[in-house]
Design brief:
Helices cover 24% and strands 34% of the residues. It is α+β, with helices and mostly antiparallel strands. It starts with a helix and ends with a strand. The relative contact order is 0.21. Pfam families: DUF6482.
Length: 100
């Protein structure tokens, strides 16, 4: 989903979740939108996922789209490596609400 599609989606829908995804060992962040049907859409540019260098860059981009709330999700490969199911949607275990 490119930026303009994100902006259009936000203007016409109100039931979605924005996730700012950070990966352990990386200083970059990605943005993902999950719609009410459970479809997940990564923010892209020219068909490739956009990588942000800081949370401030993420905040600025999301504000331009009219978004002021998101969840920060820190993905740690430990669960996947040992074969345990990941629980990124559990509200208190692996995501933190952001308001900007």
């Amino acid at each position: 989903m490119d930026f303009q599609a994100l902006k259009d989606f936000v203007a016409h829908h109100d039931n979605f979740e924005i996730r700012v995804i950070g990966h352990a060992g990386s200083r970059f962040y990605q943005v993902e939108l999950e719609d009410v049907e459970g479809g997940r859409h990564m923010l892209t540019r020219a068909g490739k996922p956009i990588l942000f260098r800081s949370l401030e860059d993420v905040y600025n981009e999301l504000r331009r789209a009219g978004i002021h709330r998101a969840y920060l999700v820190q993905q740690v490969p430990h669960d996947e490596v040992i074969g345990r199911e990941t629980h990124y949607q559990d509200p208190l275990t692996s995501r933190m609400p952001l308001v900007f």
